[in-house]
Structures are given as structure tokens and as C-alpha cells.
Q: What sequence folds into this?
């Protein structure tokens, strides 16, 4: 693994998924509270193994992909966040999924923002999308809070969906207005206020 692909935020350490994450990924992806509404639904261990292999290969080919989000305090697995190409041609997409017991603490927002910054600033992606069910207000609010804006609505298997996008220059403007510094190093830690 390339160490420059790792990211540290205030509370999280994001590392590209690897074989050592398999048991945590199986538990996450088998949990209907997390994956029942995801494209493809709840995963079996075999499906999770196939996706993990594909995620590792994607990192090798594109220098971007899915991260395991772990607590910086004790290395507890909290969930995943990252960027993958959408099969429907909408583009490189931000994705995130956190264990239910870790929701409501801003951790998914922290991970999603770090992934978005990495995609624009480090991987050079001009446009990043994210897709949420129209009735998934938590994800829609999270996406808006990190500067993504709705750009399209469509139906997937009879379910209304909303596509959000982040454009590199527009995202920087939103982030700068919010007073957030872009990531400048893969293992950046938060500066204490001066």
C-alpha cells in the first residue's frame, strides 16, 4: 500500500481497505441497517470478498478508492468512505457507510469531506458525484454540508434518487468559505488554534 493514500483527520484514520479489514467489512455489509438501502443490498461474505479484491485493484489502477475509517483513539473500525467509478456512467462517486452505533457524531461527514478533498486535491478529479435515495435525508444533509449540490434526479428500480456533484473549483470555494483548510499531507493532523 502506498502510504500517501492514508489520511488522518481530527478523529479518524483512513487507510485503503485491505485483507486485514475483511471481518469488519463482512459485518458492515451484512448489516441490513447499513446495506439494505445500498445499491446491491446486503452482501454475503463471498460478495464482500469479491468487492474487497475489486477495491484493492481499483486503488492500484486509479490511486483512489475506498478507505476503512478507524478511530484515531483506539483503531476501532467505524465504517468506510471513498471514491469509486459508478457503473451507470455518472462518474467517480463518493460513497460512505458507517456502523449504526457510530452515526450521529459527525464521523461520516468527517470521512466524506476527507475523501472529497483527496479526490479533488490529490487525485485531480474535476467532478465527483454522490447518489442518495430521495428519502435518505441524513445522507442528503451530509452531502450538502460538505459542499456537494443536487444536480439530477432519476429513478432506480422504482425508487427516486438524487445525484449530487462537487466540482473542483466550486468545492474549494465552499470549503474556503467554511474556513476549512485543504489537506496538504497524507497524514495531516489538525492544528491547534493560535
A:
Amino acid at each position: 500500500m502506498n502510504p500517501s493514500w492514508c489520511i488522518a483527520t481530527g478523529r479518524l484514520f483512513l487507510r485503503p481497505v485491505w485483507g486485514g479489514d475483511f471481518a469488519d467489512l463482512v459485518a458492515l455489509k451484512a448489516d441490513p441497517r447499513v446495506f439494505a438501502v445500498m445499491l446491491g443490498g446486503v452482501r454475503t461474505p463471498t460478495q464482500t470478498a469479491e468487492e474487497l479484491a475489486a477495491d484493492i485493484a481499483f486503488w492500484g489502477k486509479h490511486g483512489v478508492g475506498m478507505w476503512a475509517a478507524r478511530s484515531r483513539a483506539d483503531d476501532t473500525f467505524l465504517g468506510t468512505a471513498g471514491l469509486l467509478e459508478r457503473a451507470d456512467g455518472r462518474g467517480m462517486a463518493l460513497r460512505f457507510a458507517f456502523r449504526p452505533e457510530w452515526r450521529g457524531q459527525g464521523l461520516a461527514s468527517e470521512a466524506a469531506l476527507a475523501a472529497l478533498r483527496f479526490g479533488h486535491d490529490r487525485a485531480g478529479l474535476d467532478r465527483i458525484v454522490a447518489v442518495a435515495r430521495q428519502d435518505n435525508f441524513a445522507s442528503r444533509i451530509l452531502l450538502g454540508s460538505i459542499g456537494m449540490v443536487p444536480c439530477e434526479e432519476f429513478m432506480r428500480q422504482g425508487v427516486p434518487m438524487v445525484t449530487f456533484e462537487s466540482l473542483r473549483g466550486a468545492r474549494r470555494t465552499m470549503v474556503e468559505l467554511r474556513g476549512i483548510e485543504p489537506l496538504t499531507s497524507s497524514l495531516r493532523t489538525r492544528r491547534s488554534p493560535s
Summary: Residues 45-62 form the longest helix (18 residues). The chain has one domain: 3-177. The mean pLDDT is 87.
